[in-house]
Request: fold
Amino acid sequence: MMVSEGMAEKRILVISADNFACEVIRKVLARHFELDVASVDSGGDAIAEALTGKYSGAIIDHYLPGTSSRKIIKTIKTMLPGFPMMMMTSDFSEETLRSFQNLGIPDIIHKPFKMHALIDGITALIGAGGKPSSAVQV
Reply:
């Protein structure tokens, strides 16, 4: 399988307590982009992992048990300005979209997500030149 130009050596951090979503994301990104994906399910772990510098970007779940995704985003953005993040949520409201855009999160992927939406979102998130590997079928 060919790796999309610009994708080699990139890693994504998934911040979510939704194990199924984490596994789907891991499989899709490994298969179509050969990306390494790590996941954490708590705010403290999310911040600590993001600050390691090992990641090209993160996908954060809107709803995390026991913590605020907004607080995690603000902390990471303060400590790593420019760190690319994308939100995933089942909330389709304009208010939610605006609130995360105001935090510097331009892209939201809605759950349940379609594979092509995930691929497009990751391509935009980490600047992959717009094309996944030739094996992608959407």
The first strand starts at residue 11 and ends at 15. The first helix runs from residue 19 to 33.
